[in-house]
Amino acid sequence: MRMDLIQPFINSADAVLAQGLGSPVSIENLSMEEEAYRRKGIAAEVYLTGEIEGRIIFDVDLGAALELASRLAGVEVSETDEELVREAVCELANQIIGNAVTTLNDQGFHFHVRPPTLHTSEKGSKSSEDTEALVMCFNTSSGNVFMNVALRYHRRQAAETAAAAG
Amino acid sequence: MEKFAPVKRSEDGQPVRYLIVDDSVFARKNLARMVETFGGQVVGEAGDGISAISEYERLTPDIVLMDITMPQMEGIEAAEKIVRDHPSARIVMVSSVGYQENIVAALQRGARHFVQKPVKPEVLYEVIKYVMRDDGTAAHGAGAGA
After folding, report:
1. Global pTM?
2. Least CA distance to A115: which residue of chain B?
3. ipTM score
4. Does B31 touch chain A (CB under 8 A)?
5. pLDDT of residue A162
6. In order along chain A (166 residues), what is the average pLDDT of each group of 10 residues?
7. CATH number, position B60
8. Which of A53, A100, B23, B32 could form a disulfide with B70 if both were Cys (CB 3.0 to 4.6 A apart)?
9. CA angle B42, B143, A95 (to 5 degrees)
10. Would the CA dihedral through A143, B32, B105, B128 be positive or negative?
11. Distance (Å, rounded) from C-alpha A120 to C-alpha B113?
């Protein structure tokens, strides 16, 4: 997997989480995942199509999700406000992806992003040889946030885009 | 949250009236809290571009804070339609997707400014003051973060 495609997502997650939680975060763990993804908390999934294709899952521990939701809403959000907590995780995913997309687009990569959707199943699809999944664990003061990135670069699509442009 | 000198309409000294458009209820709540710290009044909210147009017609707010990626009709298209019918409309795009092409497209279609998410209150405050410069005034003695 190309790290130049991944780095903007790491930088963006780091910055957005730190601002959203009002405290620094650190990357605790980084690994390649071969098995199907197992959801750990409240998760949102975002799909990308175009020169860069694949999906990213944000999986947030309940504690961190409650803290994020409370800070975003400006009021204490409890476990019973399930809808609000899910909305907060989707908005977080939206902000992280949006910032990373901005960086990648300005670097010349062209692709589309679909709005985040909740990832409700316990298990996700297994990553394939050409879309290995990189899993990062961000350690925050309220719990862990996992980012599972499975992307591939479409050389043919990029060539077609370049040919059409010029 | 920080304290800001209230931004008022220069014509009558009344609070600036805002329409907030975003498909995320959290983003709307967050922006509403911010503009209230600027002394503003949220007169309406919408969750997509089509509702934004009808709410603009109904409320004629001083400023629209508009997300870009939304269901049914995206923010740039909604901004273009509003400005076509109301050339003096002040629309500020607020989006996490802030690459050059997007910003240029929004400004070409009539948006007055662009703010990237996650929104920093001091940045939004300066943008509001800039956009309202021909019709707004900030109370003296306190600036952003004062």
Report:
1. 0.81
2. B69
3. 0.72
4. no
5. 64
6. 84 90 85 78 90 90 90 84 89 91 89 83 59 84 90 71 64
7. 3.40.50.2300
8. B23
9. 55
10. negative
11. 37
**Quick check: B41 contacting A, CB < 8 Å?**
no
Stretch (H or E) spanning B63:
strand B63-66
Nearest of A33, A36, A55, A53 to residue A45 by alpha carbon: A55
* B55 within a domain of the structure (yes/no): yes
Burial of A166 (0-12, 13-18, 19+ CB in 10 A): exposed
Which residues of chain A approach chain B closer than 8 Å at the C-beta?
16, 19-20, 69, 72-74, 84, 87-88, 90-91, 94-99, 101-102, 105-106, 113, 115
Instruction: Report if residue B107 sits inside a domain.
Output: yes
Q: What is the DSSP letter of A123?
A: B
Structure tokens at A54: 């694949």
Enter the DSSP assignment of B73: S
Per-residue model confidence as pLDDT tens digits over A33-64: 777 778 889 999 998 988 888 889 999 999 98
Kind and range of the H or E run holding A16: helix A3-21
Structure tokens at B1: 């949250």
User: What is the length of chain B?
Assistant: 146
**Structural contact between residues B124 and B95, judged by C-beta atoms closer than 8 angstroms:** no
DSSP B10: T
10-residue mean pLDDT series, chain B (146 residues): 85 94 90 95 96 97 94 91 96 91 92 94 95 66 41
Q: What per-residue confidence (pLDDT) applies to B145?
A: 40
Domain for residue B94, yes or no? Answer: yes
In order of their start, the domains of chain A are: 3-158 (3.40.1550.10)
Taking CB atoms and an 8 Å limit, are B33 and A88 in contact across chains?
no
Nearest chain B residue to A88, by CA: B26
Tell me the shortest Cα–Cα distance from B86 to chain A, in angstroms. Answer: 29
